[in-house]
Amino acid sequence: MRAPGISMLLSWVATLSQLTSSGAHKGRIVGGQEAKPHSYPFMVSIQYHGEHICGGSLIRPQWVLTAAHCEVFKEPTVFQVVLGVHSLITPESTQQVFGILRAVPYPLFNAQADINDIQLLKLNGSALLTDSVKTARLPQWNTLVLPGTQCWICGWGDIPGQEDPTTVLMEAEVVVTAQPACNSSWRGSINQDMVCTSGAEKGRLQGFCGGDSGGPLICHGRLLGVVSFSSRTCGDPRYPDVYTRVSTFMAWIHDVLQHY
């Protein structure tokens, strides 16, 4: 498994095709439904020249949490972050648009091994908190999420079998998978800093698939995971979706927020 670099992300923007790399996809919602507008007010769209490439979560008025494999840190000034958005093509008065002042990936991020896949983005201004723009609730340090826990994911993008990408925010219910079973499916690639989920409906493909990398895994109302990687067949229950476990990195998150 290998996280896609910025050139692959920008190639996806140009072709509107799914992101793939060494058999792994990077985030799009499969087997879900349209979310109620602004029901995930912390959700952001990270865009390159007006095209959505990654998701993320507003955690402070000037900070967004996303995946390191989005590689915004290589050229942060060419990206923008859109808050308060439901439709990617319909103008909304709720939207707030910011540039990126600084990108801070976790220092031990390893794209080859898909580990420590987390990154903070400092916006070039502070968001105005409204009913449509709010910060996500973060977990306590090292909080565990038990197998069988029902959670939600959300994001924008194409759905397998449809020619055109969706333009509205989609959501799907997922269930946390036991780590030993997930690790077995992924042949030993899963560690304690990751969370795995499978679809809530057995026999149906549900999960993410190529374009909402960095989006949130919400369990019990808190941001417990960041979309990292999944199998080539999106939502395949044989290969659970994998997220970076946010609680592992809470000390680092607080340190960055305080010192940058």
Automatic annotation (TrEMBL):
Secretion signal span: 1-24
Pfam families (UniProt xref): Trypsin
Keyword Protease: yes
InterPro entries hit by this protein: Peptidase_S1_PA (IPR009003), Peptidase_S1_PA_chymotrypsin (IPR043504), Peptidase_S1A (IPR001314), Trypsin_dom (IPR001254), TRYPSIN_HIS (IPR018114)
Domain of life: Eukaryota
Key words of the record: Disulfide bond, Hydrolase, Protease, Serine protease, Signal
Keyword Signal: yes
GO biological process: proteolysis
GO molecular function terms noted in the UniProt entry: serine-type endopeptidase activity
Occurrences of domain Peptidase S1 (ranges): 29-258
The protein's name in its UniProt record: Peptidase S1 domain-containing protein
Lineage: Eukaryota, Metazoa, Chordata, Craniata, Vertebrata
Gene (UniProt): LOC100914883
